[in-house]
Design a protein that fits this description.
Blueprint: H1 2-13, H2 18-39, H3 41-46, H4 59-62, E1 68-69, H5 70-75, H6 77-80, E2 92-96, E3 106-110, H7 111-127, E4 136-139, E5 146-148, E6 164-167, H8 173-183, E7 187-190, H9 192-205, E8 214-217, H10 224-234, E9 238-244, E10 248-253, E11 260-262, E12 267-272, E13 284-291, E14 302-310, E15 322-329, E16 334-335, E17 341-342, H11 348-354, E18 359-366, E19 369-375, H12 382-394, E20 401-406, E21 421-423, H13 424-435
Parallel strand pairs: 1-14, 4-6, 4-7, 7-8, 8-9, 18-21, 19-20
Antiparallel strand pairs: 2-3, 5-6, 9-10, 10-11, 11-15, 12-13, 13-14, 14-15, 16-17, 18-19
Length: about 450
């Protein structure tokens, strides 16, 4: 009943304009920051010169608070937990992130956090008008396999759904495609990188999934190529979501456009440039998230380590803030010798036109060098290598050198995620930034 009441409220709040939403967020932030100052040693110490619990919190005051980094959370778990949690927030549970793209972090969550997660999940189902009587197929974690009678916690006990079938992501793509054809689900929920593999294989083998209505993705950046492949292979849309274990839902894809709407009722999202100033539409910056109801372990101005592009107000009319693209983590940015950052987009079709690749991954090892790590059934000819190298170089900043390295296979992370591009240079710079006390 609580979740349904929340969904009812969300149906109205999505149409508020930006200033009305911000007013509501500041009201909640007032309570959250006072609670953090009173109950969390880390904030009392860090905010000594930047926070006055007695005054009314204005946005400009909030924006002056220092950032909380992932390293702060990793190293300061005990100092960041609340001495007391309001009883109305329910039981407190300790959780961990997967640590797939960085070291894992511990955090605390309450029953209220679970209620918001369920409400936003139902919002996503309603936005995209899903037929919840259909079968849902999930391919994510290695341990995730089997069958369930319902779609999961958000729908269990609230609405009758079709069954869920789950399969480990560690299987070969061909075996997973055969499994999907046998199960004939209405919806597929998995990572964008696997969608790319499965869609390419479907086209190559002329295998259709006639009952499929929609592909849903999470946890990785979605390229236009992946969306196009999904349409070409199965004739269905791809709908992405943006979330993090420690913060909950951050943004959901608009039901009418490819934009992402920030879940402003649950989080305040800032996208900041290199000087810490808010980005304007069309600009790319670091994503800083404040979950508004995290009273067991407040994560106030939490630099989550992602980059995103701010969008213009959405034509759908919703007042929820817009992210145009989610570009991924710092480690997915290429850094040039003069310190500029780029987000390489290679394009699956362009690479496959150059050479018959089974897998590929690009790794920046120095400011001027990228390794193209590839898996191919047989070594490429000299002409194919040259064409592939030229295609990759054309998608990188001037002056980059590309070396082709053959691999037997390229493994996914422990959680099943896959990164097309990784920069060891960015990773090293971020580690140094985390050790610098003046970073915020």
């Amino acid at each position: 009943a609580t979740v349904l009441a929340m969904v009812r409220q969300l149906e109205g709040s999505q149409w508020l304009d930006g200033s009305a939403l911000l007013t509501r967020q500041l009201r909640q932030l007032q309570a959250l920051t006072r609670h953090a100052h009173e109950s969390v040693p880390w904030y009392r110490r860090t905010w000594q010169d930047s926070y006055d619990p007695r005054g009314e919190l204005r946005y400009e005051d909030f924006a002056r608070l220092p950032l909380l980094t992932r390293r702060d959370l990793q190293e300061g778990f005990d100092a960041l937990r609340c001495a007391s949690v309001p009883a109305a927030h329910g039981a407190v549970e300790e959780r961990r992130t997967s640590g797939s793209t960085a070291a894992p972090v511990r955090f605390l969550a309450t029953r209220v956090a679970g209620l918001f997660w369920n409400a936003f999940t139902l919002r996503d189902h309603l936005w995209h008008r899903r037929d919840m009587h259909q079968k849902l197929a999930v391919i994510r974690r290695e341990s995730e396999r089997g069958r369930a009678a319902n779609w999961g916690p958000a729908t269990l006990g609230v609405v009758a759904t079709g069954p869920t079938v789950a399969h480990s992501i560690r299987e070969d793509a061909g075996a997973l495609l055969d499994w999907l054809r046998e199960e004939a689900p209405g919806y597929l929920f998995t990572y964008p990188s696997l969608v790319t593999e499965l869609a390419r294989l479907s086209i190559d083998r002329d295998i259709a999934l006639p009952g499929l209505l929609e592909v849903r993705t999470l946890a990785e950046s979605v390229s236009p190529d992946t969306r196009a492949l999904c349409r070409a292979a199965w004739g269905v849309p791809l709908t992405d979501l943006y979330s993090a274990s420690e913060t909950g839902y951050i943004a959901l894809q608009c039901p009418d456009h490819d934009n992402y709407h920030v879940m402003a009722e649950g989080v305040l999202v800032e996208v900041l440039d290199e000087h810490g100033k808010p980005c304007s539409p069309g600009e790319v910056g670091r994503v800083v998230v404040t979950p508004l109801h995290a009273f067991a372990m407040p994560l106030i101005r939490y630099d989550i380590g992602d980059y995103a592009e701010v969008g213009e107000p959405c034509p759908c009319g919703r007042g929820l803030p817009v992210l145009r693209r989610i570009l991924g983590r710092v480690r997915n940015t290429l850094v040039t010798a003069d310190g500029r950052r780029f987000w390489p987009i290679f394009g699956t079709q362009a690479l496959m036109d150059a050479a018959p690749l089974q897998q590929y991954q690009f790794v920046q090892t120095t400011p001027t060098h990228v390794e193209a790590r590839i898996v191919a059934k047989t070594p490429l000819s000299a002409e194919q290598e040259a064409l592939l190298r030229d295609r990759v170089v054309s998608m990188l900043p001037a002056g980059m050198v590309v070396t082709i390295v053959y691999r037997d296979r390229i493994d996914r992370s422990a959680s099943g995620k896959f990164e097309e591009f990784v920069s060891e240079v960015s990773t090293a710079q971020e580690a140094q930034r985390g050790r610098n006390p003046a970073r915020a």
